[in-house]
Design brief:
By secondary structure, the protein is an alpha/beta fold. It has one domain: Alpha/Beta hydrolase fold, catalytic domain (Rossmann fold). The chain contains eleven helices and eight strands. An eight-stranded mixed sheet has the order 1-2-4-3-5-6-7-8, with helices on both faces. Strand 7, helix 9 and strand 8 form a beta-alpha-beta unit. Helix 1 crosses helix 2. The longest helix has 15 residues.
Length: 275
C-alpha cells in the first residue's frame, strides 16, 4: 500500500481502487478500511482513495495516542489531499468517518467539492440519538427470527445495564445472512485504544462545526438505511437540515452498510450524486 506522512510524522497508508475522478473515502470505526471494499462497485464510476485511519490497517500506531481524537484525524485527511496533489477533492465519509469528513468540510471548505455522508455519525454536529429512537427503529424488525434476543440486548445497552454489542449486530444489517455475518466479523475494530480515544474530550465542537456547514454551498448527500440503528433516518434528516441544500436519501431495506444490502441501488444513488 502507498503511504504518506501525517503532520506529526506518523506513516499512514491508503489504497486506490478504480479509475476516473478521485473521491477520498473516510472509513468509520476507527477500523481497518477494508470493510468498505469498493463500496459495492462504486469504483466502476470513480477512483476510490481509501485511507487506513491511524493505528488501523496498514497505518502506523502514533507515538502520541491522543492523536486518535476525531478532530486530530482531520489533519490526516488534509495531509492526504496535499500528498495526492488535489487542489479540491470530493469527500465521502461512512459512520464515524462522517464525523471526520464533516469536520474537515467545516475547517477546509474550499478544499471540498461534493460531500457524501453515508450512515453518518452525528457527534461532530451535536445531534443526540436517544435510546428510544433506536428502540423504535429496532421494532420494525420484530418479525425477524433473531429479534427477541437482539432486542433484549439492545434494551439493556440503551438502559445502561448491558454491553452485548455482538447480540445486537443483526440490527445493523438489512439482511442477517452469511454475507452480513462475515462482513460484521471482518469489520470489527481491532485497536481498542483508537476507538476509546476517538471521542475524547475536545474531539467535537458542534456549534463551530454547525455554523461552518450552514455556510456550505457545494452539494451534500446524506444517505442512510431504512433500518440503520447507528444512523437512524430521523437523525440523518436532522443532520441534513444543517446544510443549505442537502439531499437526503433513505435506502429501503438497508442497514448501516447500504452497499452490502443493495449494491446496485447504493451505487446508482451515490454515483449519480458524485457525477
Amino acid at each position: 500500500m502507498p503511504t504518506f506522512s501525517a503532520p506529526d510524522g506518523t506513516r499512514l497508508a491508503y489504497r486506490t481502487t478504480g479509475d476516473g475522478d478521485p473521491v477520498v473515502c473516510v472509513p468509520g470505526g476507527p477500523t481497518d478500511s477494508h470493510y468498505l471494499g469498493d463500496l459495492g462497485g462504486l469504483s466502476a464510476h470513480r477512483r476510490l482513495i481509501v485511507p487506513d485511519l491511524r493505528g488501523t490497517g496498514g497505518s502506523a500506531i502514533p507515538e502520541d495516542t491522543s492523536s486518535y481524537r476525531c478532530d486530530r484525524m482531520v489533519d490526516d485527511v488534509e495531509a492526504l489531499r496535499a500528498h495526492l496533489g488535489l487542489p479540491r477533492m470530493d469527500l465521502l465519509g461512512h459512520s464515524a468517518g462522517a464525523n471526520i469528513a464533516s469536520q474537515y468540510a467545516a475547517r477546509h471548505p474550499k478544499n471540498v467539492g461534493k460531500l457524501a455522508l453515508i450512515g453518518p455519525g452525528t457527534r461532530a454536529v451535536g445531534i443526540e440519538i436517544t435510546g428510544e429512537t433506536r428502540r423504535e427503529l429496532a421494532r420494525l424488525r420484530k418479525n425477524e427470527p433473531w429479534f427477541p434476543a437482539a432486542f433484549a440486548a439492545l434494551e439493556a445497552i440503551t438502559e445502561g445495564t448491558g454491553s452485548d454489542w455482538e447480540a445486537v449486530a443483526p440490527f445493523f444489517c438489512g439482511r442477517w445472512d452469511a454475507a452480513a455475518r462475515q462482513h460484521y466479523a471482518d469489520g470489527r475494530p481491532s485497536n481498542k485504544e483508537a476507538v476509546a480515544l476517538f471521542a475524547a474530550e475536545g474531539a467535537f465542537t458542534p456549534e463551530t462545526t454547525r455554523a461552518a456547514l450552514a455556510a456550505r454551498e457545494a452539494p451534500v448527500l446524506l444517505l442512510t438505511g431504512e433500518f440503520d440503528l447507528n444512523s437512524p433516518p430521523r437523525s440523518a434528516a436532522e443532520f441534513a437540515e444543517l446544510f443549505p441544500a442537502a439531499t437526503l436519501v433513505v435506502q429501503p431495506g438497508a442497514g448501516h452498510y447500504p452497499w452490502l444490502d443493495d449494491a446496485e441501488r447504493f451505487v446508482a444513488t451515490t454515483a449519480a450524486f458524485l457525477g
